[in-house]
Write a structure and sequence with these properties.
alpha+beta, Jelly Rolls, 7-stranded antiparallel sheet, 13 strands, ALKBH3
Length: 199
């Protein structure tokens, strides 16, 4: 079972029976989070996309891109971020998905990661940069317990493979102005899957 290395600031959202899901603020400093955000915002080749929903094509409400860790074009910032995440989570991450939420209108609908696109029993780690956004984590089975978690810059959210069976997670749109946010999603992928999911 992969967990965040022990730290008294770690908040448990779900235990090992349905997760784990844990949240740790302050994994990197605000200054470093700001520097990494600026570097990735300006240097990454961000992509817009569309997908079929309700029998029509709709724009995905965020920008995204993806790297494998053996990509020769992997930005130095992502190598540094991988080292930080690897120091906190025991997993052989080989995939980094980036999502850019430009403002309060960008979002990701409630979802769980597709298990066939993950190596079994390996975790997902989300490192947040930029503005704080709310992640809604909802239990799939009744009584559909819900947690609203404020993902601060420099924080790390860990979701166990098992959590994808029991919980959905999403970033809702907001009615108040909010600044841009970048999330880095570290996964252990089979050698083929591409990155499209958010966090």
């Amino acid at each position: 079972m992969q967990t965040l290395l022990f730290d008294e600031t770690v908040q448990a959202i779900a235990d090992a029976s349905t997760g784990p899901i844990t949240y740790q603020p302050g994994v990197i400093s605000p200054a470093l989070a700001s520097a990494w955000f600026s570097a990735l915002r300006d240097a990454v080749d961000w992509h817009a996309s569309a997908r079929m929903m309700y029998e029509r094509m709709v724009d995905v409400p965020r920008l995204h891109t993806h790297y494998t860790i053996d990509d020769p074009g992997l930005p130095d910032v992502l190598r540094e971020a991988l080292a930080v995440v690897g120091a906190n989570v025991h997993a052989s991450f080989n995939s980094i998905g980036l999502n850019f939420y430009r403002d309060e209108h960008d979002s990701v609908a409630p979802h769980n990661d597709k298990l066939h696109e993950l190596v079994p029993h390996q975790p997902i780690a989300l490192l947040s940069l930029g503005a704080t956004r709310t992640m809604v984590i909802r239990r799939k089975l009744p009584p559909h317990l819900k947690t609203e978690l404020e993902l601060e810059a420099g924080s790390l959210l860990l979701m166990g493979w098992n959590a994808q069976l029991h919980y959905d997670h999403g970033i809702p749109k907001l009615r108040r102005p909010v600044g841009p946010r970048i999330s880095l999603a570290f996964r252990v992928r089979p050698t083929r899957a591409s990155e499209t999911w958010g966090g």
